[in-house]
Amino acid sequence: MTSTVTPAAATASASAGAGAPRRRRRPRGTWLLLLAPVLAFDAVLFLTPLGKLVAASTHDHAYQRVLKDPLVSRSLLNTFEISALSTLATVVLGYLLAVVIWRRGPLARVILFALVLLPFWTGVLVKNFAWAVLLQDNGLVNTALQGLGVTDAPLALLHDRFAVVLGMVHYLLPYAVFPIFAALAAIDDRLELAARSLGAGEASIFRRIILPLTVPGVSAAGLLVFIISTGFFITPVVLGGPGDMMIANQIDFYARQLTDFAGASALALLLTVIVSVLVAIYQRILRAGGEYEAG
């Protein structure tokens, strides 16, 4: 059975289409105009200083000099060792704390989030000196250990790598808690109910449901914490020893003590390039793992 359209119906349809408002097409390049202020802001505050660093680092064979300096090699190694330890400890503690907050009610969540945010309400220098007071030979920690009979003499808790990592974890913990909590909060409660109805225990639910679904949050937290930790400066000075100096301290030494701005610029760019390469490799591994699981 075929349908026919009468000339009158066709004319009416054409008239209705002609009367309908047409959507105006935006001229090409509008999105670029909208982004222009942001791009200009980024160029002024990021690209311009970066360009000056690149220009300064090309003078006086700066790269050859800093790469031959054994202190620079040691500082780079310290930076990545301390950053890796701090990232691992921060993500583990942040995960546990995020799970505790996630399992609590609204009022308890507000209180716990306020406690997590406490490090942001005090300066990093104040926190570091507070840890120095707590960890010194006659500090609260050693006094408590000796009072409980755990140790007979004060432990060397200050001016070592342990103190540096502890101070960094204290500062970095909120950066791990919030991405992981966001991943936990996005989990559908019905998944746990379904798993329990099928006889799954708490360990099985965590291993098969919660942990896989929070991998993106854990990955984001680890990446963010690692990037921030590579630039620490005050914490190694206050809490660390001579063998715990990081690359930021070496950059300060070149700029202030040696007045070698070309060397300091070269070190800053080397750190930027190395961290960028590590981040790219990290994201590539995570992407490959996700594609493998999806396949």
Automatic annotation (TrEMBL):
The keyword Translocase does not apply. GO terms for biological process: transmembrane transport. It is a multi-pass membrane protein. Residues 1-23 are annotated as: Disordered. GO terms for cellular component: plasma membrane. Residues 1-20 have a biased composition (Low complexity). Its main location: membrane. The keyword Plastid does not apply. Keywords: Cell membrane, Membrane, Transmembrane, Transmembrane helix, Transport. The chain crosses the membrane at residues 31-55, 75-98, 110-134, 162-187, 208-241, 261-282. SUPFAM superfamilies: MetI-like. Residues 76-282 form the ABC transmembrane type-1 domain. InterPro entries: MetI-like, MetI-like_sf. It is found in: Cell membrane. This is ABC transporter permease. It comes from Streptomyces albiflavescens.
